[in-house]
Amino acid sequence: MKKIILGFTLCFAIGTVITLNSCKKETTSTTNDSTSAADASNTSTAMNATNDDAANAAGTNASMSGKTSGFELLCGALSTVDSVNGIITITYSGAECTGIVKRLGTVTVTLLNYAQGARWKNAGATLQVAYNNLVVTNILSGASYTLNGTHYITNVTGGLAYQVMNGSMSGTVAHKHVADNFTITFANGQQRTWSVRSTRTFTGSGLLSVRTITLAGDTTVNGETNVEVWGTNSNGEVFASSLIAPIVTNNVCGYYHPVSGEYTHFIANRSVDVLFGVNGTGGAVTIGNCAFGYKVTYTLNGTSKTIVLSYWF
Predict the structure, then answer these.
(1) What global pTM score does this model have?
(2) How much is the pLDDT for 52?
(3) Which residues contact 142 (CB under 8 A, 6 or more apart)?
(4) How far is C-alpha 40 from the geometric centre of its chain's CA atoms?
(5) What is the helix, strand, coil percentage profile of the chain, to 5?
(6) Where does the chain show beta strands of DSSP type E?
(7) pLDDT at res. 73
(8) Phi, psi of 242 (to 5 degrees)
(9) Of 5, 19, 23, 14, whose CA–CA distance to 303 is shortest?
(10) Cα-atom radius of gyration of the chain, to the nearest Å?
(11) Domain spans of the chain?
């Protein structure tokens, strides 16, 4: 069985890279809350990789996908299939073949309206992905966090994303992601609550082509457009992240390293702008080269600041 890995991270600085001032003249803040950015980056990585596992599991099971080939094993996980009810249980035992994160726990993937003939390869098919105390550990840093909640993934275009990404099929497959009040609990007991509205698009034209994954936000929250994720951060503050330009990754530079994209993170009466796909000094990447990381621009005590951060692995 060939391994199917569609890992894609936002490397987002959701929750902000810096604890900004509140724009009140009497307020002064110099606290660096960079761990918040690392937490958000790691969590986004795990959520996207796990959702890809769910879509791959459904896409490679003949009874649920509507194709003829048999089920293929996922990387670092064991799966059991209830072909009568259209349910797949993915169990993570802590192993992780990518060497990036390890996961422990289960997710339950249900193809909605399966009994009525829904199949994952068809446009409009929807997967319900339930996270049940999925503990994720960053192998490099040792940081861990627990995911709970439900995601819904809708196949907007029809087709199977893993076939586009492994080069066996050409075309574009789009998935709509929806989640409300999804919780992330960190090792220190801090908890974040997020909601998600995004579209991920998988594009390729064969085995020798550059295959890309694009993420776009597509809702409006508190007057901000193109919002991808919003909720309450670990400090109890309301936030929303708006994608100014879609986040793009490809198979050449690695699906964990965005080559372009920009969003603005709004928190209280402050904001942070994040530009992905920059070199070590924050400038444009030379054509043909991959990015070093992302550039964050913010205001601290009335002064505009910029910091360039590398991708977390």
Answers:
(1) 0.82
(2) 83
(3) none
(4) 10
(5) 10, 45, 40
(6) 78-82, 87-93, 101-111, 126-138, 144-155, 170-186, 191-205, 212-217, 219-221, 224-232, 238-250, 260-267, 270-278, 293-300, 303-310
(7) 56
(8) -105, 125
(9) 23
(10) 19
(11) 34-310
